[in-house]
Amino acid sequence: MGNEKLKWMFMNKLSERAIKRSIIVLSISLILIACSARAFSLERGTSSEIEKLIEEALLKNPELKASEERIQAYEQKPDQARSFDDPRLTLSFMNLPVDTFRFDQEAMTQKQVSLMQKFPYPGKLDLKGDMAMKDLAVVIKEGEQKKNRVIAQVKTAYHNLLFLKKAIILNEESRGLLAGFLQTAETEYAVGRGLQQSILKAQMELSKIIQRGIALRQQQETATARLNFLLNRPVDSHLGITGDLEQSIISLTYQELCALAEESHPALSGLEEKIERASLARKLAEREYYPDMDVGLSYGQRDDSSTAERPDFFSASVTLNIPLWQKTKESRKVSEESANERHALEQYQAFKNNILFRLKELLAEIEMYRQEIELFKTGLIPQSTSSFEASMSGYRVNTVDVLTVINNQLTLYNYKIEYYRAIADHENSVAALEETVGRKIF
Fold first, then answer.
1. What is the rounded distance in angstroms from the CA atom of residue 159 to the CA atom of residue 428?
2. Are the C-beta atoms of 341 and 265 separated by less than 8 Å?
3. Cβ(110)–Cβ(94) under 8 Å?
4. Strand bridging mode 293-301 / 313-320
């Protein structure tokens, strides 16, 4: 009778332990299913959120506002460059005798008013105005390039925030799973079935997860502050990002992207404007061989004497500058501007080559991330999920220890983190690609 009672108690304890194990396994399985569902649910609808953020950045970003003010300043220059110099008015007394200082004593004494105007050689002012227009065009292109850079920065900060949001969620879920494994390991060790090594492993991995969560939240604060900075908001403002990571599909070829970049890249167009500006400066330097002209008009008023009536004087003059030192001045200036023109041409070619190289580099990065995403999505994550589920099944029937389950769970967790990181890096490279092209490609 005593043996049957002991047997009954032993079987009852085993049954309770099995029930607890089943509950733990069931809970972990439900969490795993939820994680897996989220791992591959790429929600649509993030476009409107990111577009609103970009619109706000373009409207409020201080750097872009400064660029707009700079453009307005340069808009005032062409009319100034095409205008004549101010005329010069001269008031003078001529031939006034110092013994009496009387205006009617000497016949040549007069009060004179003179007006002088400088007229540059024909074409010079037009060239100066055209050069100012090219400077304005360059500044406008620089402003467009800054806009593209801000857009890329907003997208990068946004994608990083989405990744960190996902990583924090996965980190908390993994923390919960490890806490459950640790409790199980401690329970089994207490009844003499588990190993202390399993407890130590679970404790160590749980500490790592907690440490990683701290780092992820710090990175989230930094990324939030970065996006607020771009939006010209207080850096501690709450953003409330609600979107999810979404992989873009690039359908354009390298040759098509190169053609778009040559057509649309603002900085490249700005360098074209600089080449034309340098050509105008060379033509202006060549015009300096020809003299400018100063035209003067003057009127001299004379006082009548007691014996004679004195008529007033009218005078006119034309003054030309003589380019006498053209070998050391004008010719040198032409050589200088010719060198500047060649420099602008080479600068354009160097920048164009850099863009073409950058496009190739970014396409290679995007393709690498695409393959990584596909590998995680169709290979590593499903395989590690199956491995984890298999270990859970083995753990349920006492053929697999908790240490193996922990290792499989951590492997799955790390693959999911790397999966979302690959999507974020992919989208950041796409944002850089659009900046390099100089326009949206979707």
1. 7
2. no
3. yes
4. antiparallel
Three-state DSSP at 141 gives helix
What are the helix and strand counts (H, E) for the chain? 11, 4
- Distance (Å, rounded) from C-alpha 211 to C-alpha 418? 17
In our burial notation (b when 16+ CB lie closer than 10 A, e otherwise), range 314-353 reads eeeeeeeeeeeeeeeebbebbeebbebbeebbeebeeebe
Residue 417, both tokens = 């983190």
Tell me which residue of 298, 306, 301, 296 sits closest to 96, measured CA to CA: 301
pTM above 0.90, yes or no: no
Which residues are within 8 A (CB) of 353 and not within 5 positions of it... i.e. 6 or more apart? none
Nearest 5°: phi and psi at 40? -120, 10
Gap between the Cα atoms of 26 and 86, Å rounded:
91
* Interval 232-273: pLDDT, tens: 998 888 888 888 888 888 888 999 999 999 998 999 999 999
Query: Tokens for 101?
Result: 């200082």
Q: How far is CA 244 from CA 38, 41, 420, 431, in A?
A: 10, 9, 10, 16
The residue written with tokens 């908390």 in the block is 172
> How many other β-carbons are positioned within 10 Å of the β-carbon of residue 178?
24
Q: What is the pLDDT of residues 180-238, one digit of tens each?
A: 766 766 666 565 655 566 667 767 777 888 888 899 999 999 999 999 999 999 888 88
- What is d(CA 204, CA 212) in angstroms, rounded to the nearest whole number? 12
SS (H, E, C) 110-143: EEEEEEEEEECCCCHHHHHHHHHHHHHHHHHHHH
Token pair of 318 as six digits:
């034309």
Instruction: Please give the Cα distance from 430 to 363 (Å, whole number).
Output: 8
Yes or no: say if 116 and 296 are a contact pair by the CB < 8 Å rule: yes
Contact assessment for residue 261 and residue 360, using Cβ atoms and an 8 Å cutoff:
no
Q: Could you tell me which of 46, 48, 3 has the C-alpha nearest to residue 159?
A: 46
Q: Measured between alpha carbons, how far is 113 from 243 in angstroms, rounded to an integer? A: 77
Distance CA 98, CA 91 (A): 19
Say if strands 110-119 and 88-94 run parallel, antiparallel, or are unpaired: antiparallel
Q: Which CATH class is domain 2-84+120-289+326-437?
A: mainly alpha
Position 173, amino acid: E
The pair phi, psi for residue 433, each rounded to 5°, is: -65, -45
CA distance 90 to 325: 30
Per-residue DSSP letter, 120: P
Residues 183, 406: Cα–Cα separation, whole Å? 12
d(CA 179, CA 20): 15
| DSSP type of residue 386 | H
Mention every residue, 6+ apart, whose C-beta is less than 8 A from residue 326. Answer: 289
